[in-house]
Amino acid sequence: MGKNTCDFCGETSYMLFPCKNCGQSYCAIHRLPENHDCTGSIPSPRDYTPFGSTPGNAATYSQAALEQDSPGEYSWEPNITEFDGDPFDPSSGVVIKGVMLPKLKEPFHIAIAFAIMFFIGILTAMSIFSQLVLPSFTSVERAIFPYLLASISTGGFLTHEFSHRQVGRHYGLPARFRLLTFGMLLTAIGVGGYLMSSGTFPPFALPGAVVVIGLDNRDHAGKCKIAGPLSNFIISCIIFPVIFLIPPGNDEYRVLLLYGAYINTFLGVFNMLPVGLLDGANIFKWNKKYYFLLMAGLVAFLVTEFVFFYNTSLFLTIY
Ligand SMILES: [Zn+2]
Ligand SMILES: [Zn+2]
Ligand SMILES: [Zn+2]
Question: Residue 97: helix, strand or coil by DSSP?
Answer without folding.
Answer: coil
